[in-house]
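Think of the structure tokens as a kind of shorthand, similar to the way a musician reads notation: each symbol stands for something richer, in this case the local conformation of the backbone. In the example below we present two proteins back to back. Begin with the first one, reading the sequence and then the tokens, and try to describe in your own words what changes along the chain.
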Amino acid sequence: VVSTQSTGSSGINAEYGSDAARKYHSTPTGKAAQSDAARKYQDTLAGKTAYAEAARKYQSAPEGKAAYAAANKKFQSSLSGKASLSSSQKTYRATSKGKEKDSSYNSSEDAKISRGVYLASEQGKDAQKRYRDSEAGKASQKKVF
């Protein structure tokens, strides 16, 4: 690396200093020190602000959106993701706004079509059979007749 600065020894020291820093930060001790410094910085208001701004910029970029979507899909297919989603849905649906949206959607044409398509599928037929064979299904059949 050749310095183009004409500041004498300070330019040379800056060049050697950055080279030494790169070498140091590639060692386990240097990596640990850098991680510790980053954690301390991120705990400050300036660090939190800078981190949030960088995250916003990344998430609005195409590669950030794709990475977020992939990570979200992976999380939602994991056991903890399914549990979290289920819990969030139950909590939301217990609110008046959630009940209103459920009711609104359930009476919509989209919901009727979706239910019809599902019930006509093999998975839907299996679910209907399992319900009819269950205690609740048998009890509801008795009430109808």
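Once you have a description of the first chain, move to the second and do the same.
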Amino acid sequence: MDKILTWNIGGGATTTGPKSDDPDFLNIVTGFQIVCLQESVTEASLPGFTSYSNLRTSLKGGGVTTLVHNSIRKYCERVNVNIKDDLSLNTVVIKIPMLT
């Protein structure tokens, strides 16, 4: 299993529905331990993963989701970050010890 994937999913939908229902998307994403999604717009969830999201509510688009595979979830901790000067910035910070 590869370790980290980052992907701008551009709104999280395809012409046939949510990307999380797309078999090609699932085949790619489920091969990673940590998946960082940008432009997620809505809460993303996948079987076998814990989802951490920060969705934009004041502007169109945006939002980030980090999916952590349940096999390493016990080693991860969400860290709250306050960025007051830039309301357009969405962050999810996950503290992870060294993975081998």
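Compare your description with these statements about the second chain. The mean pLDDT is 77.
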